[in-house]
Structure formats: C-alpha cells, structure tokens
C-alpha cells in the first residue's frame, strides 16, 4: 500500500507547488478476472488490472480535476500540474467551502478482505462456475436448457490523501456469481435468474445459485395475464432492492435535493412512510458489500438513520453538499473510479426486518400479485413508478396460482412508502442493499 501512498503524495506535492490552496489525490488499483460459461463449457475469460490516480485542486473556490490511468510518477506529476492549472482557469463555485479535514480515527471493519479470495486462480473460479451450471442442469434434466453464467472476482486497494491531513488506505475483495437458464416448453420460452455476491470465498455456494435459478425458470413457465386493478403487492428482496433500495435511496442524494430534483425535497422530520418502515445506511457493517472505513473523500464511515417508523431523518451527503447545507457530513461520498469527482451514494442501505417468511406474507393475501424482480425505477423528480414485473406471480386465496405475463405495477413512490403494511423477516443482501420482503396495501396493476 506504500506505493499508493507514494503516488498520492507525489500528486499532492506537485499540485501544491503549482499553486493549489487545497488538493486531494485518490489512488486505486483493482485486479479482476471473470469467467463466462455456457452449458458446462468455458465461453470466455478476462483478466485485467485497472490502476490510476485522480487529483482535485482548489484555488480561490475554483476547482480543477485531472487523472491518469496508470501509476507512472511522471504522468502522475503531469496530472497534478494540470489539475492546479485547470483550477486557476475555472469559474469560482460560491458554494464550495473546503475539502474534508483530518479525521481523528477510522473504524476497524472486519470481513472486507479475504486472503483466500485474493489468491483464487482462473481454474478454481471456472470450477465454481461450472458447478453452478451443472446444478441448474440437474434440476432441468430432460428440458434441453441453455444456461449462461459468469463469475467475477475483484481485489481492490485504494488510498486517499489531502492537504488538510486526510490520509488513509484500505483493501477489499468481492465476488459475484450468477446463472441464467432459458428453457422452452409447449412453444413458450422462459428464463430464470439467481446470483450471489460476497466478500468471502467460503460463502460462495454455486450449487444453491444454480438450483435456484433453475427453479425460477420452471416457476415462470405458463405465464398468464390477469384482470388487474388496485391490488395488494408483495415485493421480494430483489424487487425491494430496485424500487426502494435504488428508487428511494437515489432520491435521498443531497445534491438532487439541493437542485430540486427529488420527490422527497424538504421532507426531513416528516412522516413520509409507513410506521412499519425503518431504514438505515451503515458503512461500518461487518462484511457489508458497501462497507468501507472511509468514503471516497476520506471521511470516517458511520451509521446514519434514514427513516424511523416512517419519519424521514436524514439525506445523504458528501463534503460539498454538507458544507453547502451547513449540516453534518454523512460520509456518503462515492466515485465510480479514480477518473471522476466525488458524487453521493449509499453504503449499505438496510431495511429493518419485521416478521414472517415470504410464504407467510403470501398466505395473508386474498387476491394480489408477487413481484420477485423488476429492473425499473421511479422518476426521481416526480416519484412516479411504472415497473414491469420481470418475474412474478398471481396470488389468490393465500396461494400462488400462476406466473404473470406483461404485468405492470403503477404507483407514486410517496404512496408506496406509506402503503407498506407488512415487513417480512426474509432478509437478503443484494449488493449494497439489505432488505426483507414487504407488502403494499394496494398498487395499480395492469396486465395484457
């Protein structure tokens, strides 16, 4: 890690020498490889190393940014000079106050780096992937399925240094494995999907992923349309991760709030959700996919209350938005890579569990729908949501009747949050979202 520190400090010194009043260097090195398979045969493999340094300079409230896609000292120095020069020639931002100051300490978070995962080779990864596909094939025996799958493993190291005393580094591992079987029966084609994401190699269960994706494909056979109307809806954890985990979390971005582009603007302290709904953002969760000792600006990670029994408590901030609003920084600065300036995103967005399994929730529904998965999100300004049910079922008399075809959920997010009548206990981690299933009293269902 000393190499990353050396790179960061080199960039910092150059930028300051060129006249930067404040400066920041963010350095990242990511090793990754992925294996794609199709029907028990390796289809492709890719191995990559992505390294670089991004430098931000401040001169009289003017901001300059430059980056380099390697760790070569000469090119890093050039980027440092360029960032300072860009700052001098930029337009002042009256809302900029300061970069973050030195932190007193950083939390120790276990489970972020797995040495076993960091040493896995391509052959071992391929074995896991093939095991997942074979498990799916066993469930779908005799149906001649087409099964795609992929495993991706990343080992990341990053360091951040700024001229106000910020200096820290961390390393992490993560693996993502999925299978996607497609089957044909009676002239119909359907598919299923399942995945697992984890920071620990020993937690990967390829047999579970393969079997569950195959069961999902079978469950989707024979889809039908329904009459529709205002019906209860069960959102399973995958659907919650899209609709609430992204569709609500995105509206909490303080920058979107400040620009008036969020459907929950000016709602701090208001009861905007059901009393059944409590949500936190926790960057210090042990082994969490979104956990980190510090955010993308070097600010100490923390646990932030988002909603308590339906009452909105906080928005998500980085240093810029927190200083602009004169509120505490929630340490939610994020960067897609060293090549971009900090934005805002969740760490681990956690919906507190209630009671009961998804089967228990289904048993309470006289007539309604279950949405297992959707890729749609709401309009962040208006809150309007029109979500296609990618995988779902019709419920009648407390039992699943058949899968759904061409069925949409229509609702405004403010109504959705208030209409959550039950929260299950079937919590699942879907990347940086951790949630159980939830029940909406009613939503507009259209099908056909």
Task: Describe the overall structure.
It is a single chain. The chain is an alpha+beta fold and about 450 residues long. It folds into two domains: about 220 residues, 2-Layer Sandwich (PmbA/TldD fold), CATH 3.30.2290; about 230 residues, no CATH class. About 25% of the residues lie in helices and about 35% in strands. The protein contains ten helices and 23 strands. The strands form four sheets. Strands 8, 15, 16, 17, 18, 19, 20 and 23 form an eight-stranded mixed β-sheet that branches. Strands 1, 2, 3, 4, 5, 6 and 7 form a seven-stranded antiparallel β-sheet that branches. A six-stranded mixed β-sheet has the order 11-10-9-14-22-21, covered by helices on one side. A hairpin with a 2-residue loop joins β1 and β2. α1 packs parallel to α2 and α4 packs parallel to α5. The longest helix has 18 residues. The chain is globular. The model has no long low-confidence stretch (mean pLDDT about 95).
Name its key features.
globular; 23 strands; 448 residues; 10 helices; alpha+beta; eight-stranded mixed beta sheet; PmbA/TldD fold
């Amino acid at each position: 890690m000393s190499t990353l520190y050396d790179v960061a400090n080199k960039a910092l010194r150059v930028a300051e020498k060129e006249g930067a009043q404040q400066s920041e260097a963010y350095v990242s090195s990511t090793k990754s490889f992925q294996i794609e398979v199709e029907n028990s045969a390796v289809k492709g493999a890719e191995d990559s190393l992505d390294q670089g340094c991004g430098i931000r300079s401040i001169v009289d409230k003017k901001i300059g940014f430059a980056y380099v896609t390697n760790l070569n000292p000469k090119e890093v120095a050039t980027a440092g000079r360029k960032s300072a020069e860009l700052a001098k020639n930029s337009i002042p931002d009256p809302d900029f106050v300061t970069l973050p100051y030195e932190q007193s300490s950083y939390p120790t978070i276990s489970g972020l780096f797995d040495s076993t995962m960091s040493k896995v080779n391509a052959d071992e990864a391929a074995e896991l992937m093939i095991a997942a596909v074979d498990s799916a094939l066993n469930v779908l025996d005799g149906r001649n399925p087409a099964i795609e799958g992929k495993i991706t493993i990343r080992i990341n190291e990053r360091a951040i240094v700024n001229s106000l005393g910020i200096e820290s580094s961390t390393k992490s591992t993560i693996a993502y494995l999925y299978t996607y079987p497609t089957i044909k029966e009676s002239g119909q084609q359907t598919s299923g999907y399942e995945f697992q994401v984890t920071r620990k190699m020993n937690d990967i269960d390829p047999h579970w992923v393969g079997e569950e994706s195959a069961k999902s494909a079978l469950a989707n056979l024979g889809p039908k349309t329904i009459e529709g109307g205002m019906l209860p809806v069960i959102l399973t954890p995958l659907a919650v991760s899209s609709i609430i985990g992204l569709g609500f979390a995105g509206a909490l971005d303080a920058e979107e709030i400040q620009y008036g582009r969020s459907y929950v603007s000016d709602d701090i302290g208001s009861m905007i959700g059901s009393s059944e709904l409590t949500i936190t953002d926790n960057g210090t969760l042990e082994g969490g996919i979104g956990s980190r000792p510090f955010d993308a600006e070097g600010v100490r990670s923390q646990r932030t209350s988002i909603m308590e029994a339906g009452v909105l408590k906080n928005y998500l901030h980085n240093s810029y938005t927190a200083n602009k609003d004169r509120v505490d920084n929630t340490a939610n600065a994020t960067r897609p890579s060293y090549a971009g300036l900090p934005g805002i995103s969740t760490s681990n967005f956690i919906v507190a569990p209630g009671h009961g399994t998804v089967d228990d929730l289904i048993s309470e529904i006289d007539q309604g729908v279950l949405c297992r998965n959707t890729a749609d999100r709401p309009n962040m300004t208006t809150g309007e949501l029109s979500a296609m049910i990618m995988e779902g079922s019709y419920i009648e008399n407390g039992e699943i009747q058949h899968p759904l075809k061409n069925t949409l959920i229509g609702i405004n997010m403010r109504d959705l949050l208030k209409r959550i009548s039950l929260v299950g206990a079937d919590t699942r981690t879907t990347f940086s979202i951790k949630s159980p299933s939830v029940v909406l009293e009613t939503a507009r269902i259209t099908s056909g």
